[in-house]
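Reagents: none. Just compute today. 3-oxoacid CoA-transferase subunit A.
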Amino acid sequence: MTDKIYDSPRAALDGLLFDGMTIMSGGFGLSGNPESLIPEIRAAGVKELTVISNNAGANGFGLWMLLESRQVKKMISSYVGDNKLFEQQYLSGALELELNPQGTLAERIRAGGAGIPAFYTRTGYGTVVAEGKPVEEFEGVRYIRETWLRADLAIIKAWRSDPAGNLMFRRTARNFNPNMATAGRITVAEVEELVPAGTFDPDCVHTPGIYVDRVVKSTINEKRIEKRTTRAGRIC
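Predicted 3D structure written out:
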C-alpha cells in the first residue's frame, strides 16, 4: 500500500502549480473549503488561474484570498453570493465569470471524472445560460448540451483519510468535494484526521484512494459560518 501522506500543505502542492493552470476547489459556501491549501497557492504567486468552484469564499476567507491577490483570471461558478470582491472584479471586467446553474456545475464536474465529454439538460434552456450551446429535442422537449469540466489540480477537504487516500466526509462538507476528486489530473486532499490503514469499513469510504494522489493534515479548521441565523425559544 502506498503512503500518500505529506508533511505540510506546502509540501503537498510542491511541483504542481504553474501559471495559467485550472484548479478545482471544493466547498459549498464556507463548508468543505480546502482552508489550508488555498493560502499556499497564494504564497506560491501563480497567476492567470482558472478556478472551478461553487463560490469564491467570503471576505478574508477561502478563494477570496486568491481574488484579493489578483491571481484568478476566470471563475467557473454557481454562486456569487455576498462576496463583494468577486462582484466588484466581475463588474469592472477584471475577472471573467462563467456562471452555471448549481446542478449543472455539479454534473459537469461529475462528467469530467466519469469520462463523459458532454450531456444534455433542460436546465437553462431559453435563458442566457443556453447562448451559443447546441440544442437537441428529445421526446418533444428541448435540451441544451453542456460539456464536462476537468482540471490540472483538484484541492479538496475531507474529514478523515487513511495512508492510501481513502476519504470520508462529514455532512455538508460532502458537497462538490467527492466529484472534484475524480475530475482533477492530480488531486490533493487536506483532512482533519489521519487514521491507520484498515480503519475504514469499505462501505464507509466516500472517495476511494485511487482518485487521491496526495494527502495532508489540515492546519486550518476554522469552519466559519457565512450567515448565522438564530431564534429565541426552545425547539422540541
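Helices lie at 9-13, 37-44, 64-68, 84-92, 102-114, 177-183.
Action item: order primers for follow-up constructs.
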